[in-house]
Design a protein that fits this description.
By secondary structure, the chain is an alpha+beta fold. The protein is built from eleven helices and 19 strands. It has a domain of about 140 residues: 2-Layer Sandwich (Heat Shock Protein 90), CATH 3.30.565.10. The relative contact order is 0.08.
């Protein structure tokens, strides 16, 4: 009989493996896509913040510049009007006081060609120089670098300029902001006007870049720091601004780079570790249209990205666990179905074996009865032939006649047939009453080698090669004589089924549940309709066979507690497989 292999179909295992790999690939793609999308959002946010800061800086410069230009133009108009009055009739103190009051000026000062103050109305003489402010407060209306009213007077007295405007500067007492403008007098000297620039300073303070950066860092939770650096000033805001400034000089100033869109090619982006947390830092010019103006360092926290990555990985792991669980259920169900099928096959085989055993037992009892009944007449016939041979055939030296020759031939036929019948009866008796086993642990490799050596001559006589591959055989508990008889029967059948030049293989291998001994030939195979009957007593397909050999072999193997299986295929040969239990002392 043929035993199915206890394993799942490879197509099912491959499908389950492909399902798991596919789920892992989809989950990993989702993880990478989520990370890429979040990075893209951070990059877009950084670009938007940069544009907002740059636009705010430009707006602040433009607004303060316009207000300063308007105030400077008003001061210059007043100065020119005073210059005309000065050329025609001179400037009196009363007139200067009226001009200061009516035009809401802080001070008007008239200087002689020698630089001496001739008249002054308002708060008194010119204040000392005050440092420039931020943004547009560092240049005059003509774009020149002015320093204060003292410089205005100097330029007008030296004749280098006929009209000039100072920058917005602090008052003498540090209580406000001022703007100065003046013209050169016709006869030498200067007329200088000083006006209140507090409105311009208020606008500058409200729209200053420093305040804007502080507001952005305070309102946007994902902004870890924002740092703007110019030629002589640095503005840093954000919860990690100080850590970013310290880390800027560390060994790992640059982390893993991030690829940006072509529109942001003037920026660089790197993942860094600032203040113990992951940061995506952008570096580049604050204003893309003015790369030389100021540089920007913008740090965006990656905590949200890391949290999203963890959620994505959690989904991936859960998906894989679900797929693995479903795959396990599918494999278990398939295994149960296959095990059920195998049990059904084994049950059918067991029923066949039971029916065959019952049939063989009945046939064995019949054979025993027939053998006993036939043996006595055979003995009588044999004794009668011997007596006839002694009484009717002449002895040595007597002449041989045709009648005597015919009588001798008939007696020889009777003797031969009687002997053949007696041998058949003996086989029947051996099957009906098999000898009691005497099993003992033996070296199966040595036993199989001995059997192969003894059968080599029979194989050679039929032109067949016998190959012994028994190095894998271990120890088995068998009756050596009867097991050798079973192997001889199997080898003889394999030789008879093989054509000249073919090879018969005797192999053995150890397994967890015992030992397997295999006799394999490359003959024509056994037709499927004959496989269930080959172990039946008297069944044979050979012209001169008795149908007893395989039945006796099957009986011997089962007596050892083993199984004799058949694996055959038409046109490709037959494998007779003996499964023996593991060796034991019982």
């Amino acid at each position: 009989m043929t035993t199915p292999r206890a394993q799942l179909p490879w197509r099912l295992r491959a499908a389950v493996l492909l399902l798991i790999v596919g789920a892992a690939a989809v989950g990993w793609y989702d993880y990478r896509a989520t990370r890429r999308d979040l990075l893209t959002l951070l990059v877009d946010q950084a670009a938007s913040l940069r544009q907002a800061v740059a636009a705010a800086a430009r707006s602040a410069d433009l607004a303060t510049g316009q207000m300063q230009a308007m105030l400077a133009a008003r001061l210059l108009d007043n100065a020119r009007f005073l210059g005309q009055i000065d050329r025609r009739e001179g400037l009196s103190q009363r007139y200067l006081d009226d001009v200061v009051r009516e035009n809401r000026l802080l001070r008007v000062t008239v200087f002689s060609a020698a630089g001496e103050r001739e008249r002054s109305a308002g708060l008194g003489g010119p204040p000392p120089w005050a440092g420039r402010g931020f943004g547009a407060f560092g240049r005059d209306s003509a774009g020149r670098g002015a320093t204060g009213p003292a410089s205005v007077v100097q330029r007008l007295l030296t004749g280098s300029e006929t009209e000039t405007v100072s920058e917005v500067h602090g008052s003498r007492w540090g209580t406000g902001w001022r703007l100065s403008a003046g013209i050169r007098r016709a006869g030498g000297g200067a007329i200088v006007l000083n006006a209140d620039a507090e409105d311009i300073a208020d606008l500058q303070r409200q729209a200053t870049l420093d305040r804007l950066l502080a507001d952005i860092a305070a309102r946007a939770a994902e902004v870890a720091y924002v740092i703007v650096e110019g030629d002589s000033a640095r503005s840093a805001h954000g919860r990690l601004a100080d850590a970013a400034l310290r880390a800027d000089t560390s060994a790992d100033a640059d982390g893993a780079p991030v690829t940006l869109a072509p529109a942001l090619s003037d920026l660089t982006a790197h993942e860094r570790l600032i203040g113990g947390g992951p940061i995506l830092e952008f570096r580049g010019p604050l204003d893309a249209t003015r790369p030389e103006a100021a540089s920007l360092r913008l740090g965006l926290s990656l905590d949200g990205l890391r949290a999203a990555e963890r959620r994505s990985l959690t989904r991936l792991v859960l998906s894989l666990l679900v797929v693995l669980g479903l795959s396990t259920v599918v494999l278990a169900f398939a295994g149960l179905r296959q095990a059920h099928g195998e049990l059904r096959v084994q049950h059918a085989h067991a029923q066949d074996a039971l029916r065959r055993r019952d049939r063989l037992s009945a046939m064995g009892e019949l054979a025993s009865t027939v053998a006993h009944e036939v043996r006595n007449p055979l003995n009588a016939i044999g004794m009668s032939v011997q007596r006839l041979r002694r009484e009717f055939l002449p002895g040595a030296g007597l002449p041989e006649t045709p009648e005597l020759a015919e009588q001798r031939e008939l007696l020889d036929v009777l003797t031969a047939e009687t002997t053949r019948l007696n041998r058949i009866v003996q086989q029947f008796l051996e099957y009906a009453r098999p000898p009691r086993l005497a099993p003992r642990p033996v070296d199966l490799r040595a036993l199989l080698t001995e059997v192969a050596t003894g059968a080599a001559s029979l194989a050679a006589s039929r032109g067949v090669t016998l190959e012994a591959r028994v190095d894998g055989a271990g120890e088995a508990t068998v009756d050596p004589d009867q097991f050798r008889q079973a192997l001889d029967n199997l080898l003889r059948n394999a030789f008879e089924a093989s054509s000249a030049g073919a090879a018969v293989v005797l192999s053995a291998e150890s397994a967890d549940d015992g030992v397997r001994v295999i006799v394999e030939d490359r003959g024509p195979g056994i037709p499927p309709d004959q496989v269930p009957r080959i172990f039946d007593l008297y069944f044979t397909t050979k012209p001169d066979g008795t149908g007893v050999g395989l039945a006796v072999t099957h009986q011997i193997i089962e007596a050892h507690g083993g199984l004799l299986e058949v694996d055959t295929e038409l046109g490709r040969g037959t494998r007779m497989i003996i499964r023996l239990p593991a060796a034991s002392d019982d």
